[in-house]
Amino acid sequence: MAPIPPGIRLLVSFNRDQWYRALTFILTFLLYTSFHLSRKPISIVKSELHKNCSSVSELATIASSSSSSSDSQQPSLPSLHTDMDCSWKPFDKNNYKQLLGAMDYSFLCAYAVGMYLSGIIGERLPIRLYLTVGMLTSGLFTCLFGLGYVYNIHSLGFYIFVQVANGLVQTTGWPSVVTCIGNWFGKGRRGLIMGLWNSHTSVGNILGSLIAGYWVSSNWGLSFIVPGLIIAAMGVVCFLFLIEHPNDLKSMYAQNSSPGKSVRTKNWNGVNGHAEVYLQYKNSKTQAYYYYEDSVQNRKSYDTELLLPRDSVCVPVQPVVVVKSESEPSAISFIGALRIPGVIEFSLCLLFAKLVSYTFLFWLPLYITKAAHLDAKKAGDLSTLFDVGGIVGGILAGVISDKLGKRATTCAVMLLLAAPTLYGFSMISEFGQGPTIGMLLVCGGLVNGPYALITTAVSADLGTHKSLKGNARALSTVTAIIDGTGSVGAALGPLLAGLLSAGGWDQVFYMLMTADFLALVLLLRLVTKELSSTKSRPISTVELKEH
């Protein structure tokens, strides 16, 4: 017989539960990648909505002077050329920065308000359906923004409405995917797993930049329509394949079994006096139990794990007793979630950390265009390096916090290092191409590292805090509170950037450094508590507990 290929050996080495974990990890990664992919185009298209009209005006002046010296009557052509080829109304005025900032603010403010409600609603509805509806409607509104170019719409109210509606429906994403990933993965190595998983934010930003940049100069409407179609298609994939909780699989296999069916397995010589094993499925409950026969007495043993093959196999199972409550744990209240230790501190810290991150998300391409004098496509491509650094920073933050067992301290150190990096980044126009690339990578890692750690591993830790006594239904609400508070900062950052940039980009970076310092201050109490702890052990040694 030929030897089994090593690839096949690797595949069969994983059990069914591990395959479903991998499916959930990859699927939720792709789902939230599509969310960020659909948010990124607005930052790429900004430089196209308002172009640098000086060169166009110079050409128009030359054409006007030449036409006046000739007998041809074409005095109106230069102005028509300028209007058509320069900026997109109503962003063609001197207040274009304020209008673009208002569009960002409308999306992010709606996102922040909706996030507080989304977690509470998400706990009371099937996550798969809730997430599917959110992705389909988000795809609709993203495409609707792009149709403004197709149908030549120049109403600011139209674009504001689309941004508000899209901000509200996009709140369905984050609490849902974090709850799913938290249900499937316990606390062991959560920082590493969440750090890898949270790279979907940067991957989505990179793909969104590349897709939007491909069409931004020729047809910026497609920069929105294509990402809108992608997130809608992923919504269909979510409906077809997302498994919310491992217990859903147990219910499925229990329901697929025949009522009262008893499958006799192979006899085995006995373990601890047991002579035979029977596997029965009880029709009235979605719970399987194992029945043991021995020479002394009959004993029943209940087991909640039903991820076992149903064919004839020998399974040595020890008798266990599982005490289950009759009712599902009730959803936690908003005030109850705020009482969990650390929720308020991390929420406020995320407010300022996300302010910095989202200011870069929405304004970085435009800043590079103005500071480095690049066109919209090159600026969009260069801005993706910030997200590449964010991927590395998120993973490093997760690994370090796992090893040290100190989430707050890890965030604080990265915030401390981010401030001087932001100052150096403010002088990007004075650097060459090489230093600019390096600064983008470092700045992305230090800015997005704490943001990624708080929104993933910290949220999951607090959502399964020991004070909740195993109530896993609190995870969605806790996640929504933390990310909702952070979204307030995400709304303020781009708005303030639009207002302050009128007086120079230096003021924007002073604002970002101030926010970074405030985020650090808010964590000092938790950092002091972690450092003063006499017993420090890595989080990986905490008992693995599924929830």
TrEMBL record:
Organism: Lates calcarifer (Barramundi)
Family, as annotated: Belongs to the major facilitator superfamily. Organophosphate:Pi antiporter (OPA) (TC 2.A.1.4) family.
Principal location class: membrane
Protein name: Solute carrier family 37 member 1
Transmembrane segments: 19-37, 99-121, 127-151, 196-216, 222-243, 343-364, 384-401, 408-425, 437-462, 474-496, 508-527
Compartments in which it is found: Membrane
InterPro entries, sorted: MFS, MFS_dom, MFS_trans_sf, SLC37A1_2, Sugar_P_transporter
Record keywords, A-Z: Membrane, Sugar transport, Transmembrane, Transmembrane helix, Transport
GO molecular function: glucose 6-phosphate:phosphate antiporter activity
Gene: SLC37A1
One GO cellular component, as annotated: endoplasmic reticulum membrane
Domain Major facilitator superfamily (MFS) profile span(s) in chain numbering: 27-531
Any single biological process term in GO: phosphate ion transmembrane transport
Keyword Transmembrane carried by entry: yes
Catalytic reaction annotation: D-glucose 6-phosphate(in) + phosphate(out) = D-glucose 6-phosphate(out) + phosphate(in)
Membrane topology value: Multi-pass membrane protein
Superkingdom assignment: Eukaryota
